[in-house]
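The methods section describes the discrete structure representation at length, but only in general terms. An entry of this sort, consisting of the sequence and the corresponding backbone structure tokens, reads as follows.
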Amino acid sequence: MAPKALAARIAGLYESLLSFYGKQGWWPIPSLAGKAGFDARGYHPGNYDQPRSSRGRFEVALGAVLTQNTAWTNVEKALARLHAEGIGLPADIHVLTHERLADLIRPAGYYNQKARKLAGMARLFGAKDALSLKGAPPRDVLLALWGIGPETADSILLYAFKVPVFVVDAYMRRILERIGLIPQRAGYADIQRLFHAALPANHAVYNEFHALLVEHAKQHCRAKPICIACPVKSCRYRTAARR
């Protein structure tokens, strides 16, 4: 497919999903739930300036690690337990034993592994100004942390520091394969380059687009797709369902 045609399809997909689902308000910051500009779970639709504080940025980073291999509802429970204990900055992680940290995040699953990941991340972000907007860590530094892969690193960069980098996940792969934008088993970097080439380097667009793809995968483009009322027109599954 020609680059211009591909870019047009990607832009069309974004507009279709945005029109259908509306603004998603990612990344949620549960500790701010119910406050001005935030809904009851900490989402902030249409506000791409969040997070605005070091504490908020670290909370997003915590969530990006905790959400590995589990549902967000479980992450919310783990974050609530951390918040109840006053854990909101790297220094707060440092004073906890591994066993205590693992126990606090138990609802997120894989808690021993994730406790080790959070401790490593806290050491990285514990440096002075490391959580300022001007202090976004280089991607390779994040990837050098034990247990931090491309998806988690890019989630931290995009949602905590507003770095325009597109996040690729399993939901996104499923949708793009079904509508014929990528081949099966396409690499993470290949998919990311595709979106970087098709879209302007705008963190708000990348933020919203990724969130919309996740929502679409949950509501319609499931492992067993629900094609009725699906807003995406050019999909082989939808065409087959009509037949």
About this structure: The chain has a mean pLDDT of 95. Residues 150 and 195 are 15 Å apart (CA to CA). Residues 3-25+166-242 form a domain with the Endonuclease Iii, domain 2 fold (CATH 1.10.1670.10). The longest helix spans residues 3-21.
